Amino acid sequence: METAEARTPRRITMTPAARRALDAAGRLFYERGIHAVGVDLIAAEAGVTKKTLYDRFGSKEQIVVEYLADRDERWRAFLAEHLRAAAPAPKARILAVFDASEAWVAEHSPKGCSMVNAHAEISDPAHPAYPVITGQKRWMLGLFTELAGEITPDGAATLGRTLMLLHEGALVAHGLGILPDPIRHARRQAEEALTALAGQRPG
Q1: Nearest-angstrom CA–CA distance, 112 and 116
Q2: Scanning 35, 94, 119, 193, which has its CA 20 to 30 A from the CA of 65?
Q3: Residue 189: which residues within 8 A CB-CB, separation 6 or more?
Q4: Where are the alpha helices (DSSP H) in the chain?
Q5: Considering just the CA atoms, what is the radius of gyration of the chain in Å?
Q6: What tens digit of pLDDT does each residue of 147-164 get?
Q7: Which of 115, 120, 109, 111 is nearest to 133 (CA)?
Q8: C-alpha span between 151 and 163 (Å, rounded)
Q9: Residue pLDDT, tens place only, 112-139
Q10: Dihedrals phi, psi of 3, to nearest 5 degrees
Q11: Residue-level pLDDT at 143
């Protein structure tokens, strides 16, 4: 049986009207929550008819898929730029992920991670957007594990999970607003862990 994480979500071809609708939906979903935003409001904000929305997307669920997949694609491109600009040392590349997240949330995510926020509303694995949410987080874990493997091949899985937990915990704390600069704090903790690990390795 295919798992939710393994499913590849169906995507649509974007027309100009669909792009306007998606931009409006993305803003509304992030600001107000997915369940609180109806198709009528999206259509009104986008300046399109409700019929156009259904013709282009088929359902509100598909709009949610496109919203989250679009956020994920833009984040991955944003992160790739930070990784390309980072020094080639593995430690610098790991810390660049935290730097990218700090810059991303300042510009795009004042209310916290869109995937975490969406998961609070979409916990049913049968929902077509569920694999987008979990897939994004699995991709991040894979990235941290890959980067960790450049430092400690034998301990890549453990270090990758540690970095992932620091990163995701910081994103949640940012969304809650319960402590200042959580991503910067997580970055310092990650740097301390990487420095300690380097000190343990035989010279």
Answers
A1: 8
A2: 94
A3: 166
A4: 16-32, 39-46, 50-57, 60-85, 90-108, 114-121, 130-149, 156-176, 182-200
A5: 19
A6: 999 999 999 999 999 999
A7: 115
A8: 13
A9: 999 999 999 999 999 999 999 999 999 9
A10: -85, 165
A11: 98
